[in-house]
Amino acid sequence: MIQKFVVFFLLLTVAACGWHSQCTKRSSYDLGKEMTAVVGAAMIQTGCFEIKYEPSGLNRTLWNREPETHAYGPAVERELLYSGREGDILHITYREYANRTDSGGSVGSYIRADFTQNVSYDLKTSDMIVFKGWELQVLEASNHLIRFKVVKEPALPEWSFY
Q1: How far is the C-alpha of 128 from the C-alpha of 41, rounded, in Å?
Q2: What residues have CB less than 8 Å from 53, skipping those under 6 apart?
Q3: Which positions ≥6 away from 113 have C-beta within 8 Å?
Q4: How far apart are the C-alpha atoms of 60 and 67, rounded to whole Å?
Q5: Please, which pLDDT band fits residue 116 given cuts at 50, 70 and 90?
Q6: What's the CA dihedral at 29, 39, 36, 110 to 10 degrees?
Q7: What is the DSSP letter of 126?
Q8: Full-prediction pTM beyond 0.85?
């Protein structure tokens, strides 16, 4: 009987000791901050770029552990890529990714082909790029790079894999 109680207590203790993960940085940019991207590179991305691990259960109460923050290889969900400039026309590519967890527990991103779109903007008309809730102000654009600021962002979705 005592053995069963000890096993039960050990299982309960192990189950109560754990870490809860939370995505704390969900975009590759900061509102209002000037950024630069070269042709073919991501201008902005959303996903999970930093994870905070917080102790839970007995792990928190018995050992009084502090949360740990780790930089993370992003699980990108959406991105805008700079595709260059042709005269006064600016070319942008939008892509969405599907995040999947493999059998080993690693998260991977796969391009959702049906959710890729090429868009063009006439810089003679406006220096603003407006797409899916993002508003970007173009400061400089050439066939090599773009300088811009993210002025407004869409509401970020809740992540199902964290």
Answers
A1: 19
A2: 19, 20, 21, 22, 67, 68, 69, 70
A3: none
A4: 9
A5: confident
A6: 10
A7: -
A8: no
Residue 87 Rama label (left phi>0; alpha psi -120 to 50; beta): left
Banded pLDDT at 35 (limits 50, 70, 90): very high
DSSP-assigned beta bridge partners for residue 46: 27, 78
In whole angstroms, what is the distance from residue 117 CA to residue 17 CA? 45
Distance, in Å, from the CA atom of 87 to the CA atom of 75, rounded to the nearest integer, reads 35
Nearest in space to 28 (alpha carbons), one of 94, 98, 75: 75
CA-wise closest residue to 91 among 40, 56, 20? 40
Q: Find, among 24, 22, 42, 23, the residue nearest to 134 by Cα.
A: 42
Residue carrying the six token digits 């082909």: 113
Task: Give 110: exposed, middle or buried? Use CB within 10 Å, 0-12, 13-18, 19+.
Answer: exposed
Do residues 45 and 74 touch, judged by C-beta distance below 8 A? yes
Contact yes or no for 90/141 (Cβ under 8 A): yes
Q: Which residue has the tokens 């096993």?
A: 7
Cβ atoms of 92 and 83 within 8 Å: the answer is yes
